[in-house]
Amino acid sequence: MSKRDISLVEYTCPSNRRRVKLNEIYRGNTSISKLELAIAIARTILKDPYKLPFLIYQTGSSLLFLKYVITKDRNLSLIDGANNLFRDFSRSSRIGELAQGVSYLFALNYLKFPCLIDFKDYTRIELLPEPNLNESTPDFVMYDPSGGDIFLLEIKGRWPNEVDLVELKKKFKKALEQCVSGNNYFISRGLTNPVRGTYGIIVDFFEKSHSEITTLRLSDPEGKPNGMIKNQTSLIKQHYVSWFLMLGHLQTAMRLYNGLDIGDFQARKINFNGELFYILDQSESEIDTLLSHILGGNYIYGISIKIWDLLNSPKEINNSTRLTFKSVDKEGIHLFSDGTIVIENDYQKQLLNSNKEVVTINIDIDR
Question: Which of 3, 54, 222, 237 could make a disulfide contact with 31, Cβ separation 3.0–4.6 Å?
């Protein structure tokens, strides 16, 4: 499946002082496939098994929007006139969903956070009361297993006519203030120094005829290590709720949502470059049906057996536990850094036509 290029720009932390410039410290490019983006958008929405079928309908609406608004160009761009298709309130929510999908994928595969969960889900796991309506909080809590720390992430999506650095700085300031507010919320509820650091991401989407291309802008203020957090296993289980909901495994998703193990599992396996994965049935998945319809492909889904065993283990996860995989988006193989995998094209046919219990797939991912 063809990839779309986006621009990446990193900035120093915006200062509250008006005369301090927003300094650009890195600029580069990366690419994402439409399938990866669609899956990322679905996973940012499918967070709570007790809110079905509403979340399925919301995901379907978002994926249909993605189908019609993204051009076939090499750069990730929107069709000309897309900005005029929606009323103001609908426009902001649609562009916000796109921004969350792009940012979720970036955090997972490029920042190498194998665990992202909604801020409110983290408060539920920590048995904290929900934030008040007047408490501004960020979108996501991200977990770093190597240090046992958590980070906060706030995402803003925009549809600008031009890049205005003054407005950009205001957006970053607001995003990072929401992260600070989230940290203050934790502290006010009795958690001492809970947050290792914060990230603000602004995603600017441009239409096809614009001279700019879609750009992810990142600000990453530094923080200090805080050591191991509580409830790591429940936090990681929550991350995979969206994967199983996407595939129609409602009971498994509910068990993970409630912090339980997921039971024994017997299925065919994929050996991909020496790493074993279970093939997961998606016959009950409305989202898979939508993906096949919207993107015109057929897909097989899996999850690392190491991750499955981890989700099924009674032991608490510690910072020596390996959770991060090298992401791959090549030749019909889409391996995400959290150990989830999607297979299409000839490899998908190879799996369907094979009677072997373990099907081996090897590709040169460094070529």
Answer: 3
Rounded Cα distance, 331 and 75, in Å: 19
pLDDT value at position 358? 78
Contact between residue 152 and residue 177 where contact means Cβ atoms under 8 Å apart: no
Distance CA 314, CA 263 (A): 11
Residue 139 confidence (pLDDT) above 60: yes
0.70 exceeded by the pTM? Answer: yes
Please, what's the b/e burial string for 217-248 (b: 16 or more CB within 10 A of its CB; e: otherwise)?
bbbbeeeeebeebebbbbbbbbbbbbbbbbbb
**pLDDT confidence of residue 256:** 94
Question: Which residue reads 């700019």 in tokens?
Answer: 212
Residue type, 1: M
Q: DSSP string of 110-171?
A: TS--SEEEEHHHHHHHTTPPPPPTT----SEEEEETTTTEEEEEEEEEE--SS--HHHHHHH
Flag the least confident range among 13-27, 161-175, 178-192, 289-303. 13-27
Mean pLDDT across 303-319: 79
R_g of the chain computed on alpha carbons: 20
| Angle between the N-to-C axes of helices 232-246 and 250-257, in degrees from 0 to 180, rounded to the nearest 10 | 160
pLDDT confidence tier of residue 202, bands split at 50, 70 and 90 = very high
Tell me which range, 87-91, 229-233, 273-277, is most confidently predicted by mean pLDDT: 273-277
Q: Regarding beta strands 275-280 and 269-272, do their DSSP bridges make them parallel or antiparallel, or are they unpaired?
A: antiparallel
Q: Are 215 and 204 in contact (CB under 8 A)?
A: yes
